[in-house]
Amino acid sequence: MLLTPDLLFSIANPLALLGWAMLVLAPGWRFTRMLVLSGVWSLGLAAIYAGLITAHYLGAHGGASGFGSLAQVAALFQDPWALLAGWVHYLCFDLFTGAWEVRDAQRRGVPHAALVPALALTFLFGPVGLLGYFGVRRLFGQKPFPQPAIIQTYENPLAR
Questions:
Q1: Among candidate residues 123, 130, 55, 134, the one with its CA nearest the CA of residue 91
Q2: Checking phi first, is residue 39 left (phi over 0); if not, alpha (psi -120 to 50) or beta?
Q3: Is the pLDDT of residue 121 over 90?
Q4: Closest Cα to residue 11, out of 38, 56, 47?
Q5: Which residues make Cβ contacts (< 8 Å) with residue 157, sequence separation at least 6?
Q6: The pTM is what?
């Protein structure tokens, strides 16, 4: 079987969607905690991204584009492999952010039903969902974030 950008896209998308489904529908399920809330699912997507970006920069198109200007970024995404890497980058970071939102909401006592719209926005629009989550947390959070029992302070040795 020949790996193509289209084939890898058709694998990466359902993998990310499955992670999102577990966050929304079964946040307390043992497998959601083990795979998605632990970060393992996002790390899998990160590994795919690392492989794609490495192949791109070591491949024939490596020097044809860059991040120094909008025109260079546009040239970067003309290559289907780089475009796929960019998409997997979004899938990875948005899912990681959604998992963080669920963990944080659970610690703060935010009802899951109040969290779901923010998760949907994070899935669809990334940073907009993160903004939405902070609003939800402010409105529905029951507990402050737990603080460490011992807070170490810096002591200047020259002050003696």
A1: 123
A2: left
A3: yes
A4: 47
A5: none
A6: 0.83
